[in-house]
Amino acid sequence: MGGPGDHRGPRAAGLFGSLKRLLSSLLETAQLRLDLLSNEFQREKLRIFDGLIWAALALLFVGLGLLLLAGLLLALTPEPWRLLVLGLLVLLSLGLGAWLMAQARSRLSPPEGPLAASRAELARDLDALRPPL
Q1: Which of 100, 26, 6, 98 is nearest to 57 (CA)?
Q2: Closest CA to 108 of 33, 37, 46, 61
Q3: What is the 3-state secondary structure (H, E, C) of 44-110?
Q4: Which residues contact 101 (CB under 8 A, 6 or more apart)?
Q5: Cβ-count burial 7-28 (b if 16+ within 10 Å, e if not)
Q6: Does pLDDT of 32 surpass 80?
Q7: Is 33 left (phi over 0), alpha (psi -120 to 50) or beta?
Q8: For position 9, what pLDDT does the model report?
Q9: How much is the average pLDDT of 15-32?
Q10: Which of 127, 111, 117, 129 is nearest to 36 (CA)?
Q11: Whole-model pTM over 0.70
């Protein structure tokens, strides 16, 4: 009659076809999720770079401005008060630097957490795959 595969009939081919389509769908979904993840990593990288540039520029100009201001204030201050004014300028500079670092850190922390869109898509995928209760 036939070869070794004849005993399976059309049902086996249909099952194999269904499994093949299921595997194809799973692979397409995985590829889409990886593309989304890659896109989010790229956006995070650009956002972090932007925050670091702003922090560096802020530190540069604040440092330069404070240095010039300190020189001007020390030049205008009478001799007995110069050490006190210098100490106050140091404290002010350190406080301002700490505040600017906090601002840079807040720019670098995403409000919704890292990879939020990927996590949301994966949660939707899991909900779609779970059987109804």
Answers
A1: 100
A2: 46
A3: HHHHHHHHHHHHHHHHHHHHHHHHHHHHHHHHHCCHHHHHHHHHHHHHHHHHHHHHHHHHHHHHHCC
A4: 55
A5: eeeeeeeeeeeeeeeeeeeeee
A6: yes
A7: alpha
A8: 52
A9: 83
A10: 117
A11: no
CA distance readout (Å), 81 to 22, 66, 86, 110, 118: 81, 19, 9, 46, 60
- Residue 13 corresponds to which amino acid? A
Q: CA-CA distance, 117 to 39, in Å (whole number)?
A: 10
Would you state the structure tokens that stand for residue 1, as one six-digit string?
A: 């009659």
| Residues 41-67, mean pLDDT to the nearest whole number | 89
Q: Which residues does 51 contact at the CB level (< 8 Å), separation at least 6?
A: 104, 107, 108
What per-residue confidence (pLDDT) applies to 37? 85
Closest CA to 115 of 49, 42, 40: 40
Report the alpha-carbon distance of residue 4 to residue 38 in Å, rounded. 46
Q: Which two tokens mark 113? A: 């957490």
